Amino acid sequence: MSKELGIAGHQDEQPDDESEVQNRLYIANSANQDQNITIRSLDTIIYDKDNKFRFILKKTFKFLKSNIVRTFCTSVILLAGMIILFIVVFYT
């Protein structure tokens, strides 16, 4: 009879183990869903920041490009002016 009680006792413990496993799986699934929501929101934030960064980078590059052209033209004009002044000073 003690074997029957042992088996019955073991059978009573098994549903508890299964329900505990189910509870753990439910908790893990809930945590996973929360992490997925967090990851999606972070992904959206990163996408928005990336778009703003690209916009600023394009504007900065455009400004620097136009500024480089202006600086180059100014340097050429000043160099030409210096050459003309040197020619006027040394040949007169």
Number of contiguous helices: 1
**Number of DSSP E strands:** 0
| Beta fraction | under 5%
Helix content: over 70%
Cα separation of the termini: 131 Å
| Overall 3D shape | rod-shaped
Order of helices and strands: H
Q: What integer value in Å does the Rg equal?
A: 39 Å
Output mean pLDDT: 81
Structure in a nutshell:
With 92 residues, the protein is mainly α. The chain has one helix and no strands. Residues 1-20 are annotated as: Disordered.
Q: What keyword list fits this structure?
A:
transmembrane; 98% helix; mainly alpha
Produce the secondary structure layout.
Layout: H1 2-91
Question: Could you explain the architecture of this structure?
Answer:
The chain is an all-alpha fold. 98% of the residues lie in helices and 0% in strands. It contains one helix and no strands. It has one helix spanning 2-91. The mean pLDDT is 81.
